[in-house]
């Protein structure tokens, strides 16, 4: 397995509270990796540290074998793009102005704005369905439209590695699938490494090559969804009883949680 991102003895903390404890993690190159786990388990914190937005208490993050702390901010931005959970844009910025910011890591006093930059920005707008909103102010958009504008910015950065923290936030079901399909196609067509945090375990199973389940400040399980997702994992990681079956369309694991609801057919094992 070729690795582009690794953590070595990584410990992350907020003050005295340890979030991730001495984690060793290998993220495969050219695949889609999804972090899953309960609320507060450290998924987003781990993603921020990998993106060098949070300094480790101990240990290191390696990018192509080199400690990310030794790289310049611009060098990291040319290799890796991140979409945080709640990004904020300057007031009055249009969608086009926002997406153009994705090209700034590629600019210098020797290399100014070019036709290629323009084409990449247009491709990003088109891919996210934001062409018609290009002249709209970002703060006037709906939550879903705003999220797609930020994803367009991330795509415009044109990096081999894309990190996304809950990219389907604020999106309805149709747009969730559109965005995840878009990321899947980028991976399939261009071999980009995608690392995401997702709350929906079924969507994670459908789109991920590699699942990383986090529990108790460490990696509980890692591997292909069909190899690691089980009733036992869901119980230990999420504290939830469920049945795991096969998705009838994709053959990937499908988690059906137990709980109350209108029941047409009796659940398996229920009598009377």
TrEMBL record:
Could you tell me where this protein is found in the cell? Answer: Cell membrane
Pfam families cross-referenced by the UniProt entry: ABC_tran
List the PROSITE patterns hit by this protein, alphabetically: ABC_TRANSPORTER_1, ABC_TRANSPORTER_2
**MF annotations from Gene Ontology:** ATP binding; ATP hydrolysis activity
Residues in ABC transporter domain copies:
5-241
The record's keywords, sorted A to Z, are:
ATP-binding, Cell membrane, Ion transport, Iron, Iron transport, Membrane, Nucleotide-binding, Transport
Topology with respect to the bilayer: Peripheral membrane protein
Gene Ontology CC entries for this record: plasma membrane
What top-level branch of life does the organism fall under?
Bacteria
Q: Which GO terms describe its biological process?
A: iron ion transport
Name of the protein described by the UniProt record: ABC transporter
Organism for this UniProt entry: Rossellomorea marisflavi
